[in-house]
Design goal:
This protein is of the alpha+beta class. It has eleven helices and 20 strands. The longest helix has 13 residues, at 122-134. The chain binds ligand GJV.
Length: 437
């Protein structure tokens, strides 16, 4: 290893080369990292536990030539584990530890930070309150399950603003102990029962008429709490019972991201009058490989009207459907500008139980009241100028990680059809964004 130098072949290949080589090379094998590794020289890769690497060659039994996110280098073979049929082999999972990272996940929800963030989000919390208030007549004498109740806000709204017979407030984290106190403190203990445990494992005294939950993560599905909701639906929701939210949609829009691009990429063009552009490939890798959460898009940065790329029906959606979800888009550019990437957000709907009652909507997009989810930005590797009249069409694929069950990769494929004659070499593109593994 010491004699290896960082030669031409070890430079990060362009996306196109990588794609071509992947397709043409049948000997490439996929492996999963068992633990973190930090390369000690420029020809070794750095990776995190759970990362998927493509192994191109095995020049020795100890060091293999592998690729991670388009960058190639040597990796220690003993850190890798073959990814073959990861879904089927239960034993392999346990050797990788907790695929749901529940200790960390519920540990985080055992502290106040996230609950404060969620409760401070007025749009979110008021939307749930509005659902309860506008359905209060129908909720009378109903049995409700509040899945992942956190501090119990939705259960307390139910008990105070409607007259359900029972509310089962299910919470896996240690916050449940406090939730019990909050229920008592607010005089709701006759109606609300706090049950501490994973919704998948908990036993309820009876089936429920309404299953309410605030399960939505970044890009709607991240964290995959929705799986817990679907399993609870199949086990605890009465025939004809109600799901809140009742449906969910993910929306996408091609956008400009001038200040983010300037801050992370154009910056290297002349800091302090110097040319630092050789750092741009590194900047691209570091800042544009993964999606940017908590991005705030101004309505003015949207280059086209947004488009719903996937719609989930909470009554019919199945856990197995979550493994791979595909959507399509077709956008018409409304004003000329720089196409830096795509921005996404989600909307959920709560159907009304009252005859003629209005559906309640919680929309996390740029034309609605801001929420703690904000939006998610997917940066292209290279910005493309687009003109009014052009169209941008393509597909989105959400692929759930087979090892790390709260994670997924979003792949965007797009083509730009110019309304002008001239051709540009950036007409078609594909990019996969791990979130986070
Ligand atoms: N069982 C019980 N509580 C859960 C579960 C589960 N399977 N999954 C999440 N929670 N919208 N992305 C709890 C978690 O501990 C936290 O208090 C709350 O649900 C998360 C709700 C917001 N997260 C989200």
């Amino acid at each position: 290893m010491e004699n290896q130098t960082a030669g031409e072949s070890k430079r990060p290949p362009s996306d196109m080369q990588t794609e071509k080589e992947k397709e043409g090379d049948a000997s490439v094998e996929e492996y999963v990292a068992l633990s973190n590794f930090t390369g000690s020289s420029s020809d070794q890769l750095c990776f995190s536990s759970g990362d998927k690497l493509l192994v191109h060659a095995k020049p020795s039994s100890e060091w293999w030539w592998a690729e991670l996110l388009g960058v190639r280098g040597y990796v220690p073979a003993s850190y890798l584990h073959q990814d073959a049929a990861a879904e089927e082999e239960e034993d392999e999972h346990t050797s990788l530890g907790d695929q749901w990272q529940d200790e960390e996940y519920f540990g985080n929800y055992g502290t106040l930070r996230l609950h404060l963030e969620m409760l401070s989000d007025k749009s979110r919390t008021e939307a749930y309150r509005k659902v309860i208030v506008s359905n209060s007549a129908s909720l009378r004498s109903k049995v409700v399950m509040d899945l992942g109740c956190g501090t119990g806000i939705i259960s307390l709204f139910c008990a105070q603003l409607a007259q359900p017979s029972e509310v089962y407030a299910v919470e896996a984290s240690s916050m449940a102990e406090y939730t019990r106190q909050l229920v008592k403190q607010n005089g709701c203990e006759q109606v609300v029962t706090v049950l501490q445990g994973r919704a998948e494992e908990i036993e309820l005294p009876k089936q429920v008429d309404v299953l309410v939950s605030e399960w939505m993560g970044n890009c709607l599905l991240f964290e995959f709490m929705v799986e817990s909701v679907l399993l609870a639906r199949d086990r605890w929701l009465k025939e004809g019972g109600v799901m809140w939210p009742s449906s969910a949609a993910l929306t996408l829009v091609p956008c400009q991201a001038n200040s983010y691009y300037a801050e992370k990429m154009a910056f290297w063009e002349q800091p302090y009058g110097l040319d630092f552009t050789p750092l741009q490939p590194l900047a691209q890798q570091e800042f544009f490989t993964k999606p940017k959460f908590s991005h705030v898009i101004e309505p003015d940065d949207c280059l086209t009207a947004p488009c719903d790329v996937l719609c989930l029906d909470m009554y019919t959606l199945q856990v197995k459907d979550l493994e791979e979800i595909k959507g399509q888009f077709h956008f018409c550019v409304e004003k000329s500008g720089v196409f830096h990437g795509f921005t996404s957000w989600f909307t959920v709907h709560f159907e009304s139980l009252e005859t003629g009652g209005a559906t309640v909507e919680l929309n996390t997009g740029p034309n609605s009241q801001p929420t703690h989810w904000k939006q998610t930005l997917f940066m292209l590797d290279r910005p493309v100028s687009v003109y009014a009249g052009d169209s941008i069409s393509g597909t989105i694929l959400l692929r759930r990680n087979s090892v790390w069950r709260r994670h997924m990769t979003i792949t965007l494929h797009w083509s730009i059809n110019s309304s002008k004659k001239e051709t540009d070499n950036c007409q078609v593109g594909t990019k996969s964004f791990p979130m986070w593994r």
